[in-house]
Amino acid sequence: MKVRIGTRRSRLALAQAEEVAYHLALLGVEAELVPMITAGDRGTSASGRGGVKGLFVAEIVRALQEGEVDLAVHSAKDLPADDPDGVVIAAVPERADPFDVLVTRKDSLGPGGVVGTSSLRRQAQLRRTRPELAVKDLRGNVETRLSKLEAGEVDGLVLAAAGLARLGLSPPNATPFPLDEMVPAPGQGSLAVQARAEDAATNEIAARLDHARSRSAFEAERGVVRRLGGDCSLPLGAYAEERDGNVRLMAVVIRPDGSDLVWAQVEAKEPGLAAEEAAATLLAGGAAQILAEAGSGR
């Protein structure tokens, strides 16, 4: 059997799709990559469901729904909180490193150093935990941001460890953030493999790539986003892991200027319960107002 995999054209997206294709090949399944240019790649403004990052998945999902491809591969942190009509997440392969790293031009970053990131989540946590640093909005793909760092536009960058690894990049000055300083984006490090719900044969194949603990963590983290009514571009961090049969979940909502933080840390028997309990704690602490203000300011 041969399957067609829809993916963005970026180098990182292609690397992610190739990772899935490689594991399918080990199962004896041939895969063809079908690269696409999305609204997000064209610089279209965000509106409607899914927010900014939803722009990077909508057209690939449409191709899947209309049968132009059989599978779609996304960075899980780019997905809207709800599945589109007729589409399911057929697999969440084993998660890569979910954490963020600080990449600097020099060995150290002193007071007044400028750190570039376009993520509200990263900006807010930097302002709260590293107030001695200046934060600059910096956009572009990983390679573009690294080139801006090298050119001296900024003194440091916050990047996802998984993205660097998948691109085969090892910057000389890269320091992982501890979880208590930088909670990752929901789904960070994970891939989501989508299929049409009605396509039983493809779903059966893709399901063989599913990694139970990675799926559990993804569902818990995504569940928090869904229950808060936000999207993946807001200042919301979540990190879950399965241990001894339980799901442990930490989630934070941070005011963009870093002045206020609401957090929850829970343990439950299954992902949905963990997400529900964490979201309730966050909402009780005022998360809805922080997210609403952040959303209106974008």
Describe the overall structure:
The protein is α/β, with parallel strands linked by helices and 298 residues long. It has 3 domains: 2-94 and 190-210, 3-Layer(aba) Sandwich (D-Maltodextrin-Binding Protein, domain 2); 100-176, D-Maltodextrin-Binding Protein, domain 2, CATH 3.40.190; 225-296, Porphobilinogen deaminase, C-terminal domain (Double Stranded RNA Binding Domain, 2-Layer Sandwich), CATH 3.30.160. The chain is 34% helix and 25% strand. The protein is built from 10 helices and 13 strands. The chain has helices spanning 11-26, 51-54, 58-65, 120-129, 142-150, 161-166, 200-207, 212-228, 271-284, 287-296, and strands at residues 2-8, 30-36, 71-75, 87-91, 100-104, 114-116, 134-136, 156-160, 174-176, 191-196, 236-243, 246-254, 261-268. Strands 2-1-3-10-4 form a 5-stranded mixed β-sheet, with helices on both faces. A 5-stranded mixed β-sheet has the order 7-6-8-5-9, with helices on both faces. It has a 3-stranded antiparallel β-sheet with strand order 11-12-13. The longest helix has 17 residues, at 212-228. The model is unreliable at 44-52 (pLDDT under 50).
Question: Which helices and strands, and how do they pair?
Answer:
Layout: E1 2-8, H1 11-26, E2 30-36, H2 51-54, H3 58-65, E3 71-75, E4 87-91, E5 100-104, E6 114-116, H4 120-129, E7 134-136, H5 142-150, E8 156-160, H6 161-166, E9 174-176, E10 191-196, H7 200-207, H8 212-228, E11 236-243, E12 246-254, E13 261-268, H9 271-284, H10 287-296
Parallel strand pairs: 1-2, 1-3, 6-7, 6-8
Antiparallel strand pairs: 3-10, 4-10, 5-8, 5-9, 11-12, 12-13
Helix pairs in contact: 8-9
